[in-house]
Amino acid sequence: SATRVNEAQLIEKGRENLLLQSNQFDTTWGSITTTEVGGQSGYDGTNDAWRINLNAGTALKAVTQTFSAYSGVSTASFYAKAGTHSIVQFGTASQNNVFVAFDLSNGSVGPLSSLAIDASIISVGGGWYRIQVAFQALGTAGFVIAAVDSLSATRFPSTSSTGDFYIQDAQLEQGLAATSVITTGAGTVQAGLLENTPRLDYSGGATCPSLLLEPSRTNLV
User: Fold this and answer.
1) Which among 16, 59, 162, 171 is most buried, taking Cβ atoms within 10 Å?
2) Residue 120 near residue 132, CB atoms below 8 Å
């Protein structure tokens, strides 16, 4: 994405949530031994959160979204809160070396898998946390939130838990950090500095911006 320095002297870039229906977990999301119930009290004072009920039996229990494979450093994020079940794991469906578990009862982070670059769990109040995982995508094709029994759980193990937990506002974006929430519907959504828009730059504390242009260049070697 293109970047520029904005009026606040901060570097601004284009952003895009690559997930569809990013807060509608009964649409393009698949259920694996779970039942999703909307209309729950969320981290932001709305009733836009979802309760994930874990069905009976011993099996993988998760919500998942598949999409066309892509590559590059990426960051997954979502908001989560413990119910009667408290440990969740993020992973990708197509890469067995991208997964991290989180304890929603105390804000703990489990071990990082080999292609997970960084992971964090940030309290936002009311028992809610924003979970973030930066990872190296190598043909990634799937966003998975699973219930697990421990922080040291292997990737997508079975669980006999029949509890529940809450989630809201899933996001997948390219880059090393999670940005503010971009809610999507039937298509992905862009925000910030969009493509094909003038790059008005405020570098050096300018009060009147200049047009940021890139010269043409040739490498003669």
Assistant:
1) 171
2) yes
Spatial distance between the Cα atoms of 205 and 210, rounded to a whole number of angstroms: 11
Residue corresponding to tokens 């997930």: 19
Of 61, 57, 40, nearest to 49 (Cα)? 40
pLDDT tens for the chain, 221 residues long, are 567 888 888 888 888 999 999 999 999 999 999 999 999 999 999 999 999 999 999 999 999 999 999 999 999 999 999 999 999 999 999 999 999 999 999 999 999 999 999 999 999 999 999 999 999 999 999 999 999 999 999 999 999 999 999 999 999 999 899 999 999 999 988 887 776 677 888 888 888 988 888 788 999 99
Against a cut of 0.85, is the pTM above it?
Answer: yes
Residue 195: is it exposed, middle or buried by C-beta count within 10 angstroms (0-12/13-18/19+)? exposed
